[in-house]
């Protein structure tokens, strides 16, 4: 899954929010260049995980497919790879999660044992003190 913050000027009109759209994924500079077939999901802010506009591409996971899509997306002004933890940081900055939940998500990502995973899930879901 590739997740993008979508700059205002690059939004495509006519895509229904929070509905899966199956179709060809083409190069933004060359519509004849089909990169893959996949599922796209549009999440307009503020009703998204981060509180900002987001677009998800569900694509075949082969290295060549992912690489071609990332290379194509790099040609779109304002599109870049997210930094580690950036989506969670943006969610926190936009009051979509509190500090306890943010720490729970971080702990979940870094969990190495089943016990750590279980505790992190509880914390990420606000159950730390229950």
Textual characterization of the structure:
It is a single chain. The protein has 130 residues and is α+β, with helices and mostly antiparallel strands. 32% of the residues lie in helices and 23% in strands. The chain contains four helices and four strands. Strand 2 and strand 3 form a beta hairpin. The radius of gyration is 17 Å and the shape is elongated. The model has no long low-confidence stretch (mean pLDDT 87).
**Low-confidence parts lasting 5 or more residues at pLDDT below 50?**
none
Note the run of SSEs as H and E.
Answer: EEEEHHHH
Helix content: 25-40%
- What's the shape? elongated
SS elements, strand count: 4
Our count of helices gives 4
Radius of gyration: 17 Å
Strand proportion, as a percent range, falls in 15-25%
Biggest β-sheet description? 4 strands, antiparallel
Span from first to last CA?
A: 33 Å
Mean pLDDT comes to 87
Structural class: alpha+beta
Strand line-up in the sheet with most strands: 1-4-3-2
List the helices and strands and how they pair.
Blueprint (H helix, E strand, L loop, with lengths): L1 E4 L15 E7 L2 E14 L10 E5 L4 H11 L12 H8 L5 H12 L3 H11 L6
Antiparallel strand pairs: 1-4, 2-3, 3-4
Helix pairs in contact: 3-4
């Amino acid at each position: 899954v590739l997740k993008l913050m979508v700059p205002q000027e690059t939004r495509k009109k006519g895509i229904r929010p929070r509905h899966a759209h199956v179709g060809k994924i083409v190069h933004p500079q060359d519509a004849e260049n089909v990169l893959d077939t996949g599922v796209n999901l549009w999440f307009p802010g503020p009703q998204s995980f981060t509180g900002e506009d987001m677009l998800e591409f569900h694509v075949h996971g082969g290295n060549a497919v992912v690489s071609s899509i990332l290379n194509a997306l790099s040609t779109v002004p304002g599109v870049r790879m997210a930094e580690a933890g950036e989506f969670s940081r943006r969610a926190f900055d936009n009051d979509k999660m509190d500090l306890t939940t943010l720490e729970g998500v971080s702990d979940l990502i870094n969990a190495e044992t089943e016990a750590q995973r279980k505790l992190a899930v509880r914390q990420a879901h606000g159950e730390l003190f229950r």
